[in-house]
Amino acid sequence: MSMIKVLIVDDHTLIRDGIVAMLSDLSEIKVLGEAVNGEEAIEKCEILNPDIVVMDIMMPKINGLEAAKIISERFSDVKIIFLSMEVKEEFISEALKAGALGYIPKDVNKKTLITAIKEVHQGNKYFHSMVSKVVFDNFYQNSVKGTKPKSLSDNKVSKRELEVLELIASGLSNSQIAEQLFISVRTVDAHRNHIMQKLELNSTAELVKYAIKNHIIELD
After folding, report:
1. Which of 80, 159, 163, 216 has the fewest C-beta atoms lying within 10 Å of its C-beta?
2. Which residues carry this modification: 4-aspartylphosphate (predicted)?
């Protein structure tokens, strides 16, 4: 794996220092720089050309969501992970719209942070289980009151696709699904695309909603 270049964006010095310390001893990840708000993050992206931006949401001047939209538009190769205390449905939804590929709470351990960075760098999405649970909880009430979804049999979803759908909705990344089902990441991605086409869905959030409606997954 090539060196992953990371930009850390947070308005709290202790948080930035902590993340830098977590990543400092890794040969495959290099922290290129730090920024204290969204405005500076955009400037640093242009100067440093990072692979990954690990960014908070609530910051002065330009917040993380606004900065993510601008970064995604101007620097298409830069991937964004939100590291935030705001694990709420409205923030998660806006983060996805802004182009984020990852979302993890600030109290995660070093291993989870590193996993998120590596997964997103490989082009996968990474959402912490706490984030997935928030999505489940917020969609559930709306889902059970909504219109009846298309049945799985009507859309000819295969048994393997159903397994993949269940794991996606449970918050696993493509590589984690591949490992569990003993298939390649490319195959997982193909299954994901086929599922979305057959069920006429457009996002991971809609897959989660569908899985809840059809009792493919159950909430704790």
Report:
1. 159
2. 56
Answer yes or no: are the C-beta atoms of 68 and 100 closer than 8 Å: yes
Distance CA 95, CA 79 (A): 12
The answer, yes or no, to whether residue 155 has pLDDT greater than 60, is no
Q: Model's pTM, two decimal places?
A: 0.64
Domains in the chain, start-ordered, CATH in brackets? Answer: 4-127 (3.40.50.2300), 134-213 (1.10.10.10)
Query: What separation in angstroms does the CA of 198 have from each of 53, 104, 151, 179?
Result: 34, 30, 11, 24
φ/ψ (deg, to 5) at 152: -65, -40
CB atoms within 10 A of CB 105: 17
Integer Cα distance of 12 and 43 in angstroms:
18
Check if the beta carbon of residue 92 is closer than 8 Å to that of residue 103.
yes
The label of the residue with tokens 């935030």 reads 84
Digit-coded pLDDT (tens) for 77-116: 999 999 988 787 778 888 888 889 999 999 889 999 999 9
- Give 39's contacts (C-beta < 8 A, 6+ positions apart): 61, 62, 67
Question: Among residues 149, 137, 136, which one has the least CA distance to residue 201?
Answer: 149
